[in-house]
């Protein structure tokens, strides 16, 4: 076969790349994560009866700011890790800043109250179930995001799995705020962070196995 014939054969049937394919797939995965976590929250735990009242307070919006900011930051990193050759760079700071911020506010709040009140602010009423509930609500999103990663070509498998876990759990925590009655910053700084850390760690452990080419 002549070289020109070979080139013509290889070029036959080539179609343009669909540049929106990744956007559509990550959009669908996020929709599954948000809807799945919200539906599970309503079915398993219910929506807090005074949601309309607390939603009018700045403290409630401060509460959802933690998972919302982590969700956005993790999504930006996820978009880079899912495709080879793209640097994450300063986007990592978007993940660290909300956590460090809530911890700083936690220390500030605790320093301003008597010692006997500090433990009640940290543990609240639901510390035994909070982190577990967040992990459970993360399941739909975690599997949907892992599916997206498997369809593309991540090269940093452990980091990709970890960020998928963080993105799923941040989305789940945002949905969980519809139910959670805790309104103390120290509680969020411990138990919300722990609830998001567990899927992140599981993603890091499972990533090299589940995302292997």
TrEMBL record:
Q: Which InterPro entries match?
A: NrsF
Keywords of this entry: Membrane, Transmembrane, Transmembrane helix
Which superkingdom is the protein from?
Answer: Bacteria
Q: Where are the transmembrane segments?
A: 26-47, 59-78, 90-113, 125-145, 157-176, 188-207
- UniProt name for this protein: DUF1109 domain-containing protein
Q: Which organism is it from?
A: Pseudomonas auratipiscis
């Amino acid at each position: 076969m002549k070289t020109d014939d070979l080139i013509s054969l290889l070029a036959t049937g080539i179609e343009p790349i669909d540049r929106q394919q990744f956007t559509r797939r990550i959009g669908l995965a996020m929709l599954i994560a948000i809807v799945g976590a919200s539906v599970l929250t309503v079915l398993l735990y219910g929506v807090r009866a005074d949601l309309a009242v607390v939603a009018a307070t700045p403290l409630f919006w401060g509460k959802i700011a933690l998972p919302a900011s982590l969700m956005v930051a993790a999504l930006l990193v996820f978009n880079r890790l899912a495709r080879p050759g793209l640097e994450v760079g300063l986007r990592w700071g978007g993940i660290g800043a909300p956590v460090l911020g809530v911890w700083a506010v936690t220390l500030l709040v605790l320093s301003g109250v008597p010692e006997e009140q500090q433990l009640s602010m940290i543990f609240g009423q639901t510390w035994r179930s909070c982190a577990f509930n967040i992990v459970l609500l993360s399941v739909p999103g975690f599997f949907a995001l892992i599916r997206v990663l498997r369809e593309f070509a991540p090269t940093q498998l452990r980091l990709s799995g970890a960020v998928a876990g963080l993105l799923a759990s941040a989305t789940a925590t945002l949905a969980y705020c519809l139910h959670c009655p805790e309104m103390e910053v120290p509680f969020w700084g411990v138990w919300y962070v722990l609830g998001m850390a567990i899927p992140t760690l599981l993603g890091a452990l499972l990533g090299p196995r589940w995302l292997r080419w």
